[in-house]
Amino acid sequence: MDFSDLGKMREMMGQAKQMQEQMKQMLADTVVEASSGGGVVTVRMNGKKEVLRVKIESTVMGSSTADLELLEDLIAAAVNEAGRRADEATQSHMSGMMSGLGLPNLPGLS
């Protein structure tokens, strides 16, 4: 058994763990925002897809059931769009981190 290979493997595992921690922090620090209904509903979400804030313009508040259903649809649309943006931001960060490793392009990872 070549102990230099074992040392290299430990070093690689340490780097992978460090990258995992950096990714967790990056996801927590990444904030995206999306709106629907022309800005009536705005959702702010982090890269971990945790909703940080939902903002609803006061002009949308009506008393009818149709108004409530519209508001529910707008919130769902804004949350979904924020989720897509969080995915895009995560993919962009991951691409940057992976390119820094000098690894060859692997199928399905680019």
Structure description:
The chain is 56% helix and 16% strand. By secondary structure, the protein is of the alpha+beta class. It has a domain at 23-97: Nucleoid-associated protein YbaB-like domain (Ybab, Chain: A, 2-Layer Sandwich).
What integer is the average pLDDT? 81
CATH class bucket of the domain at 23-97: Alpha Beta
What sequence of helices (H) and strands (E) makes up the elements? HEEEH
CATH architecture of the domain at 23-97: 2-Layer Sandwich
N-end to C-end Cα span: 35 Å
- Tell me the number of strands: 3
Query: Over the alpha carbons, how many angstroms does the gyration radius reach?
Result: 21 Å
Number of helices: 2
How much helix, percentage-wise, in residues?
Answer: 55-70%
* Uncertain stretches of 5 or more adjacent residues: none
Sheet with most strands: 3 strands, antiparallel
Percentage beta strand = 15-25%
User: From the helix content, strand content and strand pairing, which structural class follows?
Assistant: alpha+beta
